[in-house]
Amino acid sequence: LTTNGIGLITQAKDLYDAGLRRINVSLDTLDEAKFEQMTRRKVLSKVLEGLQEAQRCGFDPIKVNAVAMKGFTDDEIVDLAKFARDNAYQLRFIEFMPLDADDIWGRNMFIPGKEIINKIDAVYPLNPVDMNGDAKHDPAKLYQFDDGKGDVGFISSVTEPFCEQCNRIRLTADGQLRTCLFSITETDLLTPLRAGAPDETIGDLIIEAVKQKEAGHQINAVNFVKPKRNMSMIGG
Ligand code: SF4
User: Fold this and answer.
1) Is the ipTM of this complex over 0.95?
2) Gap between the Cα atoms of 94 and 78, Å rounded
3) β 176-178/141-145 pair status
4) What is the mean pLDDT of the chain?
5) Cα(80)–Cα(99) distance, rounded to whole angstroms?
6) Which residues, at least 6 apart from 219, have a Cβ–Cβ distance to it below 8 Å?
7) Per-residue model confidence as pLDDT tens digits over 72-115
8) Which single residue of 44, 50, 117, 178 could bond 35 by disulfide (Cβ 3.0 to 4.6 Å)?
9) How far apart, in whole angstroms, are the C-alpha atoms of residue 12 and residue 16?
10) pLDDT tens digit sequence for 107-139
């Protein structure tokens, strides 16, 4: 489950009892004022308590997904690494991508993954983890802390696209199949499902959609087209 973590304090136990074990919490800042500015809610403490509750329940791993933005949260990169190390969360830094609701993405706010790695490495030395076998489909490049206190991942989708290895498709909450985060078209599965279409028909629709899967995003191309629906609308 990927979540903003606000409801974990009350729901973590039920989710765990229902069989869920792996959880990703999106948390870009540890600063209450910045958190409120970003999310329009004053609930940072709830998220932090929710993370603790998830740990108490036994979730493993607990991943914290963070997006660093230049001039806004870049001064917290090392703080977030310390926070994750101290609490045994697996931190993942994701490069800021043009899927934001406020349409503020731009090179002036963008920090390359490499720069984030260097900032952490200067304080907490890092060693790259060999990623072969199934791990090569993992979008995060993992680094272990040299002192053995956990690891940190970097998802550098913009500067080091891994689209050639991508085996992901996603189904939105409103029944649309997307074959890429940056798809500008979707395959409607909701309508045929509601009309009682047999499994074979739905299967054929999925196969046809996957055959058209994008070769990759075009973020760095001049003809890049930002998808109409932002990250929060397509399921994070
Ligand atoms: S193909 Fe699309 S979904 Fe897959 S890694 Fe590239 S941008 Fe992400």
Assistant:
1) yes
2) 15
3) unpaired
4) 93
5) 23
6) 97, 98, 157, 158, 161, 182
7) 999 999 999 999 999 999 999 999 988 887 778 887 889 999 99
8) 44
9) 6
10) 788 999 999 999 999 999 999 998 777 777 788
Kindly write down the DSSP assignment for every residue of 163-189, as one continuous string.
GGG----EE-TTSEEESSTT-S--EE-
CB 181 less than 6 A from any atom of ligand 1: yes
Please give the single-letter amino acid code of residue 131: M
> Which residue's CA is the closest to the ligand 1 atom numbered 3?
180
> Amino acid letter at 160?
E
Residue 181 CA to ligand 1 center (angstroms) comes to: 6
C-beta atoms surrounding 169 within 10 Å: 15
CATH superfamily of 2-163: Aldolase class I (3.20.20.70)
Give residue 165 CA to ligand 1 midpoint distance, Å.
Answer: 9
> For residue 91, how far is its CA from the centre of ligand 1 (angstroms)?
21
Enumerate the CATH 3.20.20.70 domain ranges in the chain, comma separated.
2-163
Q: How far is the CA of 82 from the centre of ligand 1 (A)?
A: 29
How confident is the model at residue 131, as a pLDDT?
Answer: 79
Place of tokens 């045994």: 88
Q: How far apart are CA 2 and CA 10, in angstroms?
A: 16
Terminus-to-terminus CA distance in the chain, angstroms? 10
Count of C-beta atoms within a 10 Å radius of residue 156 = 19
Is the pLDDT reported for residue 236 higher than 70? Answer: no
Strands 126-128 and 141-145: antiparallel
Q: Which residues pair with 128 in a beta bridge?
A: 143
Give the largest CA-CA distance in the chain. Answer: 58
Cα 141 vs. chain centroid, distance in angstroms? 13
